[in-house]
Specification:
The protein has twelve helices and 16 strands. With about 350 residues, the protein is an alpha/beta fold. It has two domains: about 130 residues, Dihydrodipicolinate Reductase, domain 2, CATH 3.30.360; about 160 residues, Rossmann fold. GO terms for molecular function: 4-hydroxy-tetrahydrodipicolinate reductase; NADPH binding.
Length: about 350
């Protein structure tokens, strides 16, 4: 009764199964691993729609959209998994990769090969002088930040001090302070904890529902499970955003109730993450249940790999460059703004 599955060339799924008079429990939390294939096979048949482009179409689209762009971008933490993914997508889109990146102290002075480009890693201690010099050389520079949660605010302060527009995909940090820093500096920025375009579209739909139907789920209980690679220490920003929508819909839920799955064994056996994607995935499940346990709703989205985020990041870079060039009055944007622009590749 209302099941939707969207597949767009990646392992991304949104499922909204609705059970009437079926008091089934949230497997990952209460039923000792019922989130595996047995559970999926017991659920209703999914209605699916596949959207993809042929390699030739993609090549033609890239060649027409990205020809002669040459926009310079600097990807910080280029040795990280997201940094590498963004560089590869940016190279394919015809952007110019500045051959310098800020990274960990132990990597300072090293050269990293990414996407056929050799990039020198510089230390945090020298970053202000280095960035000022790079910005002088590349006045159209845009920075992409996929570093660490505890570096978010310091990095943003540096970018704003030098005056460089940036795309911030790193989660965590003091978000209120982050936005105030950017507002006070008048620097252009796209700030979003979620860069996957299709996931953002789902979030936008949730926000519309919360705005138009406040209290629609009053009295319902909510259980949330999210699984990411073991290196991700903080709770998912996407999960928090979805939960915020449910709270507006009348559901009582504290963020510390999110079940974080970081153990590889649990991820494969209980959650169903393919072993080859243990180092890079995002599986989310939101389970709602009525007070009398006769109605349940589930929202699920699963992402394997990082290409969905990397491609969205490149779109955000192109979007921001356009805003800078047009001297747009608005300075701070998110991925919903990027989606609304409608000029994605």
């Amino acid at each position: 009764m209302g099941i939707y599955t969207f597949v767009a060339g990646m392992a991304f799924v949104v499922k909204v199964p609705v059970s009437i008079c079926s008091p089934g429990k949230f497997g990952a939390v209460t039923c000792g691993g019922r989130m595996n294939n047995d559970v999926h096979s017991a659920r209703r048949t999914l209605v699916s729609a596949s959207v993809s482009s042929s390699p030739a179409q993609k090549l033609e689209l890239l060649s027409t959209k990205s020809k002669d762009i040459g926009l310079p971008i600097m990807v910080n933490s280029c040795a990280g998994k997201m940094g590498k993914a963004v560089i590869e997508s940016a190279v394919n889109a015809g952007l110019h990769i500045v051959p310098v990146s800020f990274g960990a102290a132990e990597d300072s002075g090293k050269s990293v090969q990414v996407g056929g480009k050799e990039i020198e890693v510089r230390s945090q201690a020298e970053r202000e002088d280095v960035l000022a010099s790079i910005f002088d050389e590349y006045p159209d520079l845009i920075i992409v930040d996929y570093t660490m949660p505890d570096a978010v605010n310091d990095n943003a302060e540096l970018y704003c001090k030098i005056g460089v527009p940036f795309v911030m995909g790193t989660t965590g940090g003091d978000r209120d302070k982050l936005y105030k820093t950017v507002e006070d500096s008048n620097v252009y920025a796209v700030i979003s904890p979620q860069m996957g375009k299709q996931v953002v579209a789902f979030l936008a739909a949730m926000e519309i529902m919360a705005e138009q139907f406040p209290g629609a789920f009053s009295g319902y209980s909510l259980q949330v499970m999210e699984s990411h690679q073991a290196s991700k220490k903080d709770a998912s920003g996407t999960a928090k955003a979805v939960i915020s929508c449910f709270q507006k819909l009348g559901v009582k839920f504290d963020m510390d109730q999110i079940q974080l799955i970081r153990d590889p064994e649990l991820q494969t056996e209980m959650v169903g993450v393919p072993k080859e994607h243990l180092a890079g995935h995002a599986f989310h499940l939101y389970h709602l249940e009525s007070p009398d346990q006769t109605v349940t709703f589930e929202f699920q989205h699963n992402v394997c790999g990082r290409s969905i985020y990397a491609e969205g990041t490149v779109d955000a870079v192109l979007f921001l460059a356009k805003k800078v060039k047009s001297k747009a009055e608005k300075r701070i944007y998110n991925m919903i703004d990027v989606l609304r622009e409608g000029n994605m590749r």
